[in-house]
Amino acid sequence: MAKATTTIKQVLNYHADHGAWFAANQDLFNRVTSFYFGVIQAHEKVLDLCNKEALTVLEKLTHTTQSNPYPVIPLSEIAEDIPAMFRRAAINAALGSARSFYSLLSKWRKRKEKSIAKGKKFHERPPVPPRSWNKSATLYVGMWKERSGSSLMLKVWTGSVWSWIRVRITAREIPNGVEMGSPALIRRGNQWWLHTPIEKQFKSPAKIEKQVTTNEQTKICSVDLNVDQHLAVCTVRTVEGSILATKFIIGGRRVNGLRKKQLGRIARNRHKTGIIVEGEQDNVDLWRKIRNTDEQVAHVVSARIVQFAKQHEASIVVFEHLGNLKPAKGKYSRRGNSKRAFWMKGRIFKYVKYKAYNAGIITSRVNPRNTSRECARCHSLVARYEEGKPAEGYAYGAPLVSCSQCGMRGNSDRNASLVIGQRLIERYQKGPKEKPPTPLVAERVEQSTGVVISQDAQSVGTRPSTGSARHGDHNEHGTAQETGMRMVAP
Ligand SMILES: [Zn+2]
After folding, report:
1. Is the pLDDT of residue 41 over 90?
2. Could you give the CA distance from residue 406 to residue 414 in angstroms, rounded to a whole number?
């Protein structure tokens, strides 16, 4: 069995005053969490224990009871009458933060030792414990009750007392057949939400090899990620070779434009001030904007890829390996932009991997060598050209391809996505493989480490495809039903 987790986000409808209570509640939660982080720092050894044991030890150190009247560091100095479940949620939050902090610290120490052993200087700063706390309060059973599809009761700290209040919930209901985790009270701007993690059990999907070798009708969604206009081009095909649908996900040019503008602003600000203080982030707001845009795009694109795969019942999604980053030359904004676009591709892959897995779909990657230069029908090298220009040569990033061997013509990104799908199938096909054409440019690519839910191919001597189509007229349509066109060379 496999497990998938997701979060159900519900808007809360509450009395205007209650917003301030939620804020007071969260504030207290953070004070208690911060208190326990301090206790853990003073008793680092608790981190050697599992969470359950650590919790017992930490309560013993802090919680006043009849049998434990004088704890070493009493929590009552922070606040009186904290409900047990509130305290435990805060302890677990503090344990989580402490574990992550100490693991970073020990990694840093190892790097330092290694560096000193080699006789090198070590300038990297050590990680610092959190200076401020902004955690959302997790509500363990006992802090909420009477949950229905439309409302629930919450126990919150109002700033002066503990009080049960009823709040109405809107939007998505909790689906059936899932295991519900502890909800958390989350603030987004001025609005409070209830986030509930849910866990679903499902039958683990069969290995790709099995799916591909035992069922000719297995559907594969292959994805060509780009940095320009087409952020992603997806095609769904069967193992046997019928192409069922294509989807163009556009918007790359807009994202690039936005990002480049922000990077340009950062560059100009830096030029004006002249100095960048080491270890201090400059232009915080602009950087945040860039990060938010990238993150949002990666989420939207990955969700649409998975939705498309689901819609066409694909059970495998395949990408090409990303290859190495080759930063563009030119101004700061241009170089920075190409770097971030590259990272975004990585993030899209990562998000697709987990979103697809939650839908029972396996993700894989194939060798990226020449995916943009090979004909999807006959494997010859294609000509790549601009619209209105002769179909010859190879114009890097041009939108159209044409194969002089078999006469195939079409969109270059779509051709690349078809080639990616074929590579996956070829990997499992028996018999002597056709020798791939000599690469025009061969570069080294880092060997990717296998990821549990992604059955990666190893790749060496490869070249990433960074097609930059300038076709404006493909608006994510599913090119319908080109069945019968065998895309695998006989
Ligand atoms: Zn061809």
Report:
1. yes
2. 17
